[in-house]
Design a protein that fits this description.
The chain has 7 helices and 20 strands. By secondary structure, it is of the alpha+beta class. The protein has a 5-stranded antiparallel β-sheet. A 4-stranded mixed β-sheet has the order 1-2-5-3. A 4-stranded antiparallel β-sheet has the order 13-19-18-17, with helices on one face. The radius of gyration is 20 Å and the shape is globular. Bound molecules: uridine-diphosphate-2(N-acetylglucosaminyl) butyric acid. The site of uridine-diphosphate-2(N-acetylglucosaminyl) butyric acid has 17 residues, from strand 13 and helix 6.
Amino acid sequence: MITVLNNYSLKNHNTFNIDISASKFVEVTRVQDLIYHFNHRDDNGLPILVLGGGSNVLFTKDFNGEVLSPVIKYIEIREENDEFVYAEAGAGVIWDDFVEFCVGKEYYGVENLSLIPGTVGAAPVQNIGAYGAEAANVIQEVKGVYVDSGDSFVFNKEQCRFGYRASIFKKSLKGKVVITSVLFRLYKNAKLNIDYGDIKKKLEEYGSDDIYSVRKAIVEIRRSKLPDPGETGNAGSFFKNPEITAEHFNELKLKYPSMPGYKSEYGMIKVPAGWLIDKAGWKGKNMGRAGVNPRQALVLVNLGGATGNDILRLAEAIENDINEKFGIRLEKEVNVI
Ligand code: EPU
């Protein structure tokens, strides 16, 4: 089914709850509808924006173009052997429903990604990650359709060019394709990753360390730090964690001995942006209706009635301040439209 709505408010389609509208909103429920739509679109030239759960966008003005919402919903087991199960999910499946399904069947690999907002189709775009896991670890294939031609594609993992909160879909293919489904390769034998942060502590508290307890621990940790977008508009981490050279890190470490840092590729050090923003004194502060979450400074929030530009102004003030204080340029994780 294809539903087309004109001048449609996106307030309920972005987790920052910004009230702007799209000139056209198109919802499709099947892959063949999407292909039909691309072959019969009369307003080529209008930009297309694919919106999953809207949990990683900040709208700063009305969108003069077509917002496409693929609500393709199914989960199917494609193949299974002693070691792996291959589960395919439609792009419109709510990400956490997929995690819940896998945990319920004791398929290992996505439990650490519990409660991340958004949809399955958005997961590969920014290679969602949390608590030492990322989507790229379990993605086997991504299927989709090219906007221009209506042709279908199937990408293997290498073709997706995954990186830290990055993929080909966020870079060269941005705005050019719509993801319709994702094939995941999950483990059938217990393979848990509980080294990050406070997970172990929680499991000790529960006295159990199975997949259900890991999901429970992560849900509790996230709820304690990250505001529920249903109550306070936000898009999770607003910035990426920046990478700096070892020299720069060592220099800063002399001035700020408590500064955390983790080795990443090519000898760079990844520094938590949340720590920098916190240290710079922004935690819990606000500029008008835009605020910095008091429990995790990496999350910017809509205190109610903020415009996209209010949030952007706060983000830019933070960026400038972090650059002045630490000589580090923060990069936005959220897609500003
Ligand atoms: N920190 C502070 N003050 C703060 C926030 C963080 O000092 O206000 C320090 C913490 O004490 C800790 C470090 O910074 O030492 C890291 O904090 P945390 O474990 O909360 O993780 P993060 O690096 O800030 C990343 C992801 C999150 C993900 C968490 C947990 C990015 C950009 N963010 O945050 O992802 O949930 O790890 O794995 O990589 C998202 O992408 O939307 C998101 C929420």
